[in-house]
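Per-record layout

source: Paenibacillus cineris
name: Glycosyl transferase
length: 364
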Amino acid sequence: MKVLFQTRFNLFTRKGGDTVQIVKTREFIERKYPDIRIDINSDPSVDVSGYDLVHIFNLLRPQETSLFVQNAKAQNKKTVLSTIYWRSPEFEKQGQFGLRRMINRLIDYDGMEKIRALYRYYLDGEKHDGTKQLIRRGYTRLQRDILDQVDLLLPNGEGEIELIRNVLKPGKPIRYLVVPNAIDAGLFWCEPLPDRDLVLCVGRFEPRKNQLNLIKAFRGLPYKLVLAGTAHRTQQKYFDAMKKAIGNSNVQIVPEMEHDDLKAWYRRAKVHVLPSWYDTPGLVSLEAAVSGCNIVATTRGTTREYFRDDAFYCEPGSVESIQRAVMQAFQSPGNEQLQRRIAAHYTWEKAAEKTVEGYRQLLG
């Protein structure tokens, strides 16, 4: 079997959770199934005649995803879509930063996305037909058109499918198979350690990850907070606000790091906190859980599907809620039940098996 992976053009220059998902899915499928070969290509007009199917990622960027789907269908190829989907008007109107939040409060969701598309087209180098389609047809309609063309959806949780049905209202019945988010459990596993002495937050520095409210929540707390990550050039004002809010407090920023260095921080942390405006559920939270950290997670997204009652939940818009959840997590014993469950069920091996199960369903 030959499969082509297609996704956003800046997959490796602006890395995110989808970068890890794509690279690791490919690695573990090819490791477990030597008869399957996978290529990664972001060219929307590539010849796909040599592939059995095209696996596309990320419904949140329909301006590119639509081009991949149209190209595959023009060449009569079956298509799989890993949705990586969530929609949060609450975040856009409350959690965004600066001028963008002010504008978002005046217009609807599709209006926000049209403005973003215009910016990308004229100022950020995305002058292609997909961006023009988004501007002309609208964000939601373009996403709905994609759903009506692809053959199989691979969401990370049932919550994604529920949201897709309720918000996008596709015109045909949804065929899907849940493929859970995953981690390299063997790399991050750690036996319980008695000397964990800090709170850790790993992730890109951006309004959706909500580090600014987290910093505010640590004013007056007796714990040390370490923020590990980096800010994209478009988020420099947010990063500056973060540094200003820190002042001389008990908060430290460390640069983004590779897994071997990151696991040392996980092993020092009693708590990992990700108070995002939404997450599905955040790969770093899974890594931290299997490393033995107590988990503070957002109430938004698919976090409860993964962590159930084994995490401490916070409201992203409430500094007091974040502070309370961190205190409860730090004062509680480690949760070995969560650690074992994540290590057993949310691994790249399991994700590879589910993905290939979807391929086989589709190809018969």
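summary: The chain has two domains: 2-88+138-182+347-363, 185-345. Residues 30 and 36 are 6 Å apart (CA to CA).
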